Amino acid sequence: MNPLPGWRAAFRIARRDAVRAKGRSALVVAMIALPVLGVTAADLAYRSAMPTKAKELTAELGAADARFSATSMGPVKLQQMPDGVNWGTPRGAPDPTPEEQEKPVDVTAAFPEGARYLTERTVPASVTTRHGIADTQITELSVADPMLRGRIELTDGAYPRARNEIAATEDFIESAGLSIGDRVTVRGPERTYTLTGALEIPADLEADSLYAVPGSVIAPWQKTADRDKNILPPQASDPKWLVEAPPGAGVTWKDVLAANDRGVLVVSRQVVLDPPPDSEVPMAAMIGEPYDTEKALTAATLTVAAMAVLEIVLLAGPAFAVGARRSRRQLGLVGSCGGSRGQVRAVVLAGGAVLGGVGAVVGVGAGFGLTALFRPLIEEYAGSRFGELTVRPWEILGIALLGLVTGVLAALAPAIVAGRQSVLESLTGRRGTRRGSRVLPVVGVIALVAGVAVAVYGGMNGDTNFVAGGSVLAELGVLGCIPVIVGFLGRLGRRLPLTPRIALRDAARNRGRTAPAVAAVMAAVAGSIAIATYTSSNAAEQAYDYTPNMTPGTAALMAADTGDRAELPRSRAAVEQNLPVSGGRADIGRVWAGSDCTVYYEEENGCGTLELVKPTGKGHSCPLKGKGAKELALRISADEHKRLMNSPACMDENYTMVAFGTDEHKIVIGGADVLASYVKLADPAAAKAIAEGTPVLLNSAYAQGGEVTLKATHVYNPRDKKNRALHPGKARTTTDRLKVYVAPDRFAATPGIRMVMPERTAERLGLHVEENGSFYTLGREATDAENQAVQAALDQAGNRAYLMTSDEMLRENDDTDTILLILAIFAGVVTLGAAAITTGLSKADAEADLTTLSAVGAPPGVRRSLSGFQCLVVALTGVVLGTAAGLVPAVALRLTDLRAALADMREDPMESAYTPIVMPWETIGLLAVVVPVLAGLLAAGLTSSRLTLTRRAG
User: Using CA atoms in the order 620, 626, 628, 630, what is the torsion angle rounded to 10 degrees?
Assistant: First the structure.
């Protein structure tokens, strides 16, 4: 018997039913199409943005066939891999002598016959802007040549062609406040160029650089530096050559080997895209096999795809149940006309196939359309142009097939239920009763416990496959327990008012529609909470590991010269007039013994030394450094290691930055204003102590009995006439015990400073003091315009000082908050959708009950409040369960990270093992409070309070 006629009728009935129930069909199509849309758009964006070999070569070579370059080894024979990244001398060959290294390499002699080429050199430079001065890099390259197309594109104006013309990237023009036609002066040689055009680097949209024709910047700069020794010569890069071979020839592997014999490296487009066999590559035997990540990537992709299918099935399943219930009379007629249970099931499954197919087509089409529409925004976020939209037909077909299969799977459970109903029940509208399964909750509990155990085991042993498998098993276990949990909720409504009591009991009575909706919310929230928890925890770990260069929110003006040549007053005025300074400045000085090592550094033992002696013993020596450190690291936990790392004794070993002219002793000369503005030590006792001449020690590990030991070697250089006359005789070493004010332990982490000493105390000890700079507190982060303006002002002040600012902005410039917000929005949308579906189904099932309530005098507002509470029950239950389920993979993955961190710490005891688990409370609060309340209010607001009384059947 041919089954096609039966299926043809089933599809015809399903198509007509879908057209008849347009609202429900649109809802199902949207639920299937949205994930398909997201996966399609993600696939297109990922494949298009992924740097393939061809795209990388275009970003590096433009339209050229190859790039030739010399090395610092001279004209000696080389070997290289086809990609040109790995290279070296042949195995067993002697190292080139200094004489050989100094010989020039004739790179152009290695070009293929008849080739055309361009030269490229880059030099760092400071240039004038509309706001002041900015540091950038200038590339000498004929960007107007067609050989550069694909690598550099003109977006406005014209390419530079004359020696007094220059072009800039769009990012530089925007930050510098320039316009086409403005004049740009290169500081040093003081040569001025006209800005002719705006450029874009497709592979790096944030590039900040200038481009000029060859010979227009570096050579004139060098000539100027040769004439004026006060001008620093250009620090230009070695030249590179972009080569275009004769048409149809290309640069072959044979050409590359010939160039290697001359000491020239080559990156050839033809060779990289079609590499020779290893037997023809002399260096291949020296290079190991690269690590293959395809297996891990495939596993992750399959896991995500499986969870996506589960999510859609849970969301769309109740909608198909609505359709099957509303079509039960039609299905009963099929059975009454001789249709078998299988044919009844086929009608419902055909509906899933029809709507799944439509959803897949709509989703794929919308994915293409939205990707094309938002392509500029995606490229800006990725930081590079796609070049072309990369489409892999089999992947797109697989995504569409996934949508079709998902629609059929979503209709599977309603089809089975419809096939089990008797013809009489279908025709009369009676639903009958069916007890819930007692086996499913038991299996769910077992799966939940086993899944948690497997995930934790995987985390403890560093196996992410066990973590992923255990997490999925635990979530499936929670899914199996949801009917029991929903049933338990019905018992909680005994003491509640009418509408929440009815909502809870209705949810418990109709677990078949409540459980899938709760499960859908749980699945979405679980994924979001898992990623959010891991992201928050990783961000906290990075914040802990971050080592600041300065106290956040501060700036330091430091003298570039010694003595009166520093001219600090003019430089201070430049800073105070151009930066967002809040409050007054705090002046600091530097201290040294004997002759100044910053001046007399040429002779060995030709200057003095100053040392803050660190005592030994407990509380002074860091147990994680030196003898016995590794043995200790094997015994301690991550928390104990963190406590030791944060102790003053180890903090000093961890924060090793030397700044502010302090040398290794990290002593600055200053007063209470330094403590307030930079150290952030707001302690009247400390301010009083330093005013009385007592130094303030920030690291208590250097104190013993409230005193520190200061060791000074007073060595005076014979060329130091001034100080030598005051201190004739042999070098002497002094050791002084100083009473100090010891700051709390948390100030041991102050960047760059170990002790603040009053000037009079240093002079009393026979030390030398010199004003060295100032600290400033900034009210906010300085803008590009303000930074350029202050650099110009410092240059006008004689360029005798330099500015240091906190790099806090670099640490805060991450996407953590954006990721958490996107996850919360995604889970919130799914929660609202699932709650809306189950509320609609509840309304369909509860019409008889609502009619009865109206008949006995219930006010019209009961309908609204009942819908609101039904929606609230589903949303809140799913969010709570999802939060608990999402913590399982997050905690397990953090345990994996902890295991790796402990292994690194035991290899190097000074390596951080801090691996926190941070709850994303803002995301959880948004999902647990805002989204359920919003869902309830929307459901109540969109529900009509009018009711037409109808005759009750039965």
Answer: 120
